[in-house]
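Sanity check

After download, print the first record. It should look like this:
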Amino acid sequence: MRILSILFIALLACGCQTKRDIGRAIVRQVAQYGGHTRTSAVIPPLNGRWSINSADAMSFRAHMSGVTFKEFESFMQHVYGDPASTSVTVGHTWAVPGHIYYRAAVIGAGFEFYHKWNGIAFYCHRGIHVTPMGAAPPR
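Expected structure tokens:
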């Protein structure tokens, strides 16, 4: 019985340490918030770990680890195209140095991601339409 317990704990620990392809999971989650890829090309593999920290009907926040910022930035550029230029984000409440932004007007959902000491923080929100009465969620 003791050997089975040790084996179970060892297998559990090994399973927690394995990386998996999270690229498709990210694309699927973003699609639930109205985002679409820029192309029908194959989604490249992105090996790492991710977890959703919070989510509601309008947005979600996630954390990734086991993947470098450069790898993630390259993945996002391949799948969603070029990020918003810095001139677009200047004056924007999210315009923080070191953050990468994708505009909802271009791909259906807005993204922000940035490097943290323990991985990558990712924020996705549904596209917001600006009307004469103010901002309104898409229908």
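If your output differs, re-run the checksum step. Summary of this record's structure: The longest strand covers residues 47-55.
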